Amino acid sequence: MLDTIIAQATPIGKSGVGVIRMSGEKSLEIAKQVFLCKNFVSKPNYMYLGKIDIGQELSDLGFCVYFKAPHSYTGEDVIEFQCHGGMLVAEKIINKCVEKGARRALAGEFSKRAFLNGKMSLDQAEGVIDTINAETENQLKASSNLTKGNLFKEVNKMQESLTDVLSEVEVNLDYPEHDIEYETKENILTKLNKILIDVENLLITSSTGLKIKNGINIAIVGKTNVGKSSLLNALLNYEQAIVTDIEGTTRDIVTGSIEYKGFIFNFFDTAGIRQTKDEIENIGILKARELLQSSDIVLLVLDSSKELNNQDKENLELIKNKKSIVVLNKCDLPSKINFNGDCVKISAKQNLFTEELKEKIYNLSFGTQNIANQIILTNSRHIEILKEVKELLNNLQNTIFDVPLDCVSLDIKTVWEKLGEITGNTANESIIDKIFSKFCLGK
Ligand SMILES: Nc1nc2c(ncn2[C@@H]2O[C@H](COP(=O)(O)OP(=O)(O)OP(=O)(O)O)[C@@H](O)[C@H]2O)c(=O)[nH]1
Ligand SMILES: [Mg+2]
């Protein structure tokens, strides 16, 4: 029997209301000793108003709800107190319950119990963490897809198909005549191929998924004084980077992020690229070159009030094989630039046309994708497992005609088990512990 755990579910600090959650067999018994309410008849799912004993003859007026197992978040008997928010009241109620036999919960312990009691799969639990951590609308959409069990259903469907294939193999193991074996293997191959396509279709979504989770990294590069730092500030709408008319002002990388249309865009302002003997500036330029290579998108800034010089031309060469946008800055000044390629004209200083630039960056990153109800893989654990599944299936397809059926059967079981690591039906204890340790206290 698991012991009874307790923790504050709301953040610790001053607030209107604080919620305390207690889960386990002794919850109701402890609540009856701590919650003083004449009518507290322990009817589940009803909210009772009463005094909560906080010790030293003090009490707090609050609510208590009883969720009877298995109809609760954890699947166990759960009590929730709503008390006044603040640093002390909740702590005193928790102390009182600990005195009566509860134990302070570890981070994620309620959700771990929910998983162990079959209330949610491992990927759904990961959706819960993502929902708590979501900062953009698309992160929320992706996490809600997980908590709704959409990935769980998809993985289950694949596992069911594998079970079908497996039963076909098992039947034919008893009839090892060559003809039947060949036919069986052909059949298996067709079915495995369908599963492989499903796996690949899921994996395709991971590039968008990781962008949803981590944002798009955009390097702002160009020669000195073209207005890179001014552009960063205009995009962020606050003065993050130092702007002066002295060439070589920026040396370190200056960063800032915005949310646009539900996605995070991380901007990196860099040192202006030029020939210089300044040691510190050269380190900055090296960093700029590295960032140019590693970022998802490059904004190459040119000064439209001047003619292109050799440095600009060199920089244009640098971005040739990158996803990039040429930005002609200082469009508030008379144009002298001799550049005819695709570009966006802006004035960073006067914040003109920066919205158009954002739209262009967005389109370059996502095109016209709509991710509303689609499963999008955002979790690198799921992505890694599916990549392994893909490899196992590929190997199986390549070797199927060279190995006996009993080996094929073993290989199919391995794929089945690998898939089960996503939903948790074959995940080992250390993976489970690692996942739940990422939760916050009281969840
Ligand atoms: N007229 C006008 N001036 C601008 C514009 N954008 C930047 N400037 C000016 O250009 C000068 C250089 O701007 P910065 O943003 O510091 O340029 P930078 O590319 O970051 O320069 P480094 O850090 O030295 O590489 C400053 O005097 C800015 O005020 C613009 O759109 N129009
Ligand atoms: Mg700068």
The CATH superfamily of the largest domain is identified as P-loop containing nucleotide triphosphate hydrolases
Largest sheet, if any?
7 strands, mixed
The kinds of small molecule bound in this structure are: guanosine-5'-triphosphate, magnesium ion
Put simply, the count of helices is 15
Return residue spans where pLDDT drops below 50 for at least 5 consecutive residues: none
Task: Please state the oligomeric state of the protein chains shown.
Answer: single chain
CATH architecture of the largest domain: 3-Layer(aba) Sandwich
Q: How are helices and strands ordered from N to C?
A: EEHEEEEHEHHHHHHEHEEHEHEEHHHH
Tell how many strands the DSSP assignment holds: 13
Ends distance: 20 Å
CATH topology value of the largest domain: Rossmann fold
Q: How many structural domains are formed by the residues? A: 3
- What is the name of the CATH class of the largest domain? Alpha Beta
Roughly what is the average pLDDT, rounded to an integer?
92
How large is the share of residues in beta strands? Answer: 15-25%
Radius of gyration: 30 Å
Structural class: alpha/beta
The neighbouring-strand order within the major sheet is: 3-4-5-6-2-1-7
What is the 3D shape?
flat
Give the fraction of residues assigned to helices.
Answer: 40-55%
